[in-house]
UniProtKB/TrEMBL annotation:
Matches recorded under NCBIfam families: UbiG (TIGR01983)
Residues that bind S-adenosyl-L-methionine: R37, G63, D84, L127
Gene Ontology terms, MF aspect: 2-polyprenyl-6-hydroxyphenol methylase activity; 3-demethylubiquinol 3-O-methyltransferase activity
Designated name of the protein: Ubiquinone biosynthesis O-methyltransferase
Record domain Methyltransferase type: where: 60-154
GO terms under biological process: methylation
SUPFAM superfamilies: S-adenosyl-L-methionine-dependent methyltransferases
Functional note: O-methyltransferase that catalyzes the 2 O-methylation steps in the ubiquinone biosynthetic pathway.
Keyword vocabulary terms for this entry: Methyltransferase, S-adenosyl-L-methionine, Transferase, Ubiquinone biosynthesis
UniProt-listed Enzyme Commission number(s): 2.1.1.222, 2.1.1.64
Protein family (similarity comment): Belongs to the methyltransferase superfamily. UbiG/COQ3 family.
Length: 238
């Protein structure tokens, strides 16, 4: 299978490992949106619809970094495996999970490595990852191969629109400096239509989609019908 990783992107995020868990640091936008992302996924995944009861479902977090979303889902009851190709970020993830008393299986590698091992999961998530991969089609095929039939794949990413260029690229990186410059390449952002079509070719179908919008001060992020900038999507494997 074609490698889905981009070495430059791996190195970029690995260099931020020591600052990953600082809610005021370069990963502050992920800290702010993480409750929304985890809650949204749990509501679409949980048995009985209770987002606090995932019933031990096996969940793979692809591109887990230092474990923000992995820990969030583990606290909701999922049995989480975190996967990343950045060793320094994984070292931070393992240490933080141990301090938090969470049993998360962190592994270094890429999705194609797990496919070769025969691993399969009830659900797979890749949050703020697909806009950084070398080959979107190959990446989606790998995610589909890693989820069991009847399982779910969850992605969150950035739409390629004028608004996303203004707010997520220029605003976040250059004006407000919420993210390090060069974090994103706007040309690699993906529209919902592109993502839906590529997912279908990988054997996945869209079952839900929602925009993610920052609220006011201390209000956190909220789900919205507006997908012009950030959005999250649920994909089913039949």
């Amino acid at each position: 299978m074609t490698s889905t990783a981009t070495p430059g992107e791996i190195a970029k995020f690995d260099a931020l490992a020591a600052e990953w868990w600082d809610p005021q640091g370069p990963m502050s936008p992920l800290h702010a949106m993480n409750p929304l992302r985890c809650g949204w996924i749990a509501r679409h995944l949980a048995r009985g619809g209770d987002p606090a009861r995932l019933g031990g479902l096996t969940l793979l977090d692809v591109g887990c970094g230092a474990g923000l979303a992995s820990e969030g889902m583990a606290k909701l009851g999922a049995k989480v495996t975190g996967l990343d190709a950045a060793p320094a970020a994984l070292a931070v993830a393992r240490a933080h999970a141990a301090e938090s008393g969470l049993d998360i299986d962190y592994r270094e590698g890429m999705p194609e490595d797990l496919i070769a091992s025969g691993s399969r999961f009830d659900a797979v998530m890749a949050l703020e990852v697909i806009e950084h991969v070398a080959d979107r089609a190959a990446f989606l095929e790998a995610l589909a191969a890693l989820v069991k039939p009847g399982g779910m794949v969850f992605l969150s990413t950035l739409n390629r629109t004028a608004r996303s260029f203004l707010f997520a690229k220029l605003g976040a990186e250059y004006l407000l400096r919420l993210l390090p410059r060069g974090t994103h390449d706007w040309k690699m952002f993906v529209t919902p239509a592109e993502l839906g079509a590529e997912a279908r070719r990988a054997g996945l179908r869209v079952t839900a989609i929602s925009g993610m919008t920052p609220g006011g001060l201390k209000q956190g992020w909220r789900a919205t019908p507006d997908v012009a900038v950030n959005y999250i999507v649920a994909l089913a494997k039949d």
